[in-house]
Amino acid sequence: VMVSMVMVVGVCVLVRWFVVCCVILCVVIILCFFFSSRRRHTRYISVTGVQTCALPIWVRFFDSLNACAIGYQGRTAWTSDAGVRWKVRHTGYPARLTDIEMFDPYTATVVGHALYGASGGLVLRTSDAGLNWDVQLDQPGRDFKGVSFSDADHGWAVGTGGSIFRTIDGGGGR
Fold first, then answer.
1. Where in 94-169 does DSSP place strands (E)?
2. 73 to 29, 40, 42, 112: CA distances (angstroms)
3. DSSP 76
C-alpha cells in the first residue's frame, strides 16, 4: 500500500510539473507571436508627387528602387529611388489604367480602357520609363482588367466578356 501511495504522489507531482511547463510554454509562444507579429507590421506614409497621378490604382515595383504607379486619365508615375520622388508622365491616351507589368526599370506594359467615348480596351507599352507609349492592342467594347507576362515576350491581357489576348512577341507584332 505504501509503495502505491508513493507512486500516486510521484505521478501527481509529475503531472503538476507537466501542466506548469505547458502553461509556461504557451505563455512564451503567445508572447513570441505577439512581439514578432508587431514587428512585421509597417506603417504607410504619404509620399509626395503621387497625389498628382489622378487617383493611383496600382503600383508595381521592378526591384527595390524602381516602380511605376498607374491610374486614371492615362497618367503614370515613375520612381527610381524607392518612392522618395515620383515623376508623373502621361500615356497620351485618356484611359483608366488597371494593371501593369514591368520588365526592367524602363519597360512596362499597361492595360485599361479608354475614357470619354474613345474606342475601348487598350494595351500600351513603354521602353523609356513612360516618356513614350505605343498602342499594342485597341479593342472596342472591351475593358482590360489584367496583364501578366512570363517573360518580356510571352504575355496575356484579360478583360470583360471573358476576353483573353496572348502575345508571343511582347505585343510588338501586328
1. 95-102, 108-114, 120-126, 134-140, 144-149, 155-159, 164-167
2. 50, 35, 31, 10
3. E
Query: How many residues make up the chain in this entry?
Result: 174
117, amino acid identity: G
Backbone angles phi, psi at 124, to 5 degrees: -120, 150
Given the DSSP bridges, would you call strands 155-159 and 134-140 parallel, antiparallel or unpaired?
unpaired
Q: Any idea what DSSP says for residue 165?
A: E
Q: Residue-wise pLDDT tens for the chain (174 aa)?
A: 555 666 666 667 777 777 777 778 767 776 665 555 444 444 555 555 555 445 567 888 999 999 999 988 888 999 999 888 889 899 998 889 999 999 999 999 999 988 766 668 899 999 999 999 999 988 888 889 999 999 989 999 998 888 899 999 988 764
Determine the residue type at 153: D
Q: What are phi and psi of 50, to 5 degrees?
A: -70, -30
Distance in angstroms (rounded) separating the CA atoms of residues 147 and 151: 12
Label residue 167 exposed, middle or buried (CB < 10 Å: 0-12, 13-18, 19+): buried
